[in-house]
Design brief:
The protein has 136 residues and is of the alpha+beta class. The protein has helices spanning 16-33, 129-135, and strands spanning 44-53, 60-69, 80-84, 91-95, 105-106, 112-113.
Length: 136
Amino acid sequence: MEKHIDFNIAELQEGAVQEKIEKEVERIMSNVLDLDTDATKKRKLTITIDFIPDENRQVLSLDAQVKSTLAPQVSIGTTMLAGRNMDTGFIEARELKSHAPGQTYIDDDGDLKTDVGDQIDDEGNIIDFNKKRNSN
């Protein structure tokens, strides 16, 4: 069967449209493999070709656009503590690091920190129950 319309997207503008398609598919694959995105979220490739005829309807200009819709980065939540510093009067806000207001914690390096991550240097307030038990 003879083709009456010779139209091949891969060959348009000497392969330029196909190159754009491949570039967007690569972006989609990179987004799929990005661990900071939702694995099951749909990605989309959109190819739009506008056919713009002249006044005599014999010559058409084609305008091709290729774009992808990617999955967004997953959101990351945290908790902040906010209040007014009674000494200065300024509003202060800091990220809660200990997961409980007022609770101290030990970081990955073994340092004792306040609930907002400030280093606690005063070891005089720390009760070492092992030392206390051994001294009795």
